[in-house]
Hints:
11-stranded antiparallel beta sheet
Amino acid sequence: MNDVTVETFDVAKLANAVTPIQVTASVPVSAWAIRNWCHVMGVTDPLFTDPGVAASRGYAVPVAPPVMLQLWTVLELQQHEHGVNRALRQGFTEAGYSAIVATNYDLTSLRLARVGDLITTRVSLESISPRKETPLGAGYFATEFHEWFDQDGMKLGELKIRCFYFRPNQAAPAAGRPDPVPAAGSSDGLAIDVDTTLIAAGAMVGNDFERVHHDRDLARAQGLPDIIMNIATSAAMVFRYAGVCEPQGLLTHLSLRLGVPCCPGDVLHLTGQPTEHPEASARAYTLVGKNSLGEHLKGSMVVQTTP
């Protein structure tokens, strides 16, 4: 591993080298991709899979869940020679911070993507933190800002996603796999059985091929118990829970902060508490997601209850 230390690693130089980019998807939003994503994530709302239901709820064409926004241009972003994430990965890896985990996810949905839309994404670097010491190791938190637009220039949504680029703490032994906890009743939130298929398929259906989500040996080498659920899948699980809280509602804002990892063999138990919201047509909730290791996520969501 590169022995560059914080004293010689110029964070400001890296930040200045990361330039905003804009890419357009090579293919339009498709009903097949929506159906496949919903199947993997366990989303059963027919709004997203049944054109008749979509029409009855005021949509002229089928629509995609808001937490799918990142999917439509992720391959083009990965392949862009000046991609923001690509530049960050290269700079941090050269400095010896080769491992990465996502930590924060703040999504605002303004309009659902429709089948046939051709999506454009604008991405910029918002910030890089000072060097931090964590149980995983030492590293830096970098926040990217994403915006999505349709072919007519209408803004669909935006996302701030924060990732931790770190040097794994080799001194800490890898933990064992978590002991499963029993699923709580559906009357007390939403309990989701987490297995290897959900974690690996959840990452790959969103074109996230980070090895920590499917390579157990690599995950354990980074001090993790096993492969870990990615933040987009965690967001999808909260989207499922939003449907439990408001069956006829539609999630419009989601803010998550990840804590302990979610690994195969565990149960993710999501609960929420209603909070005040200034709009009569919306409901706000605080969120907590726990597993046998502790608190996997916490945050908040807003669900629009009327069109």
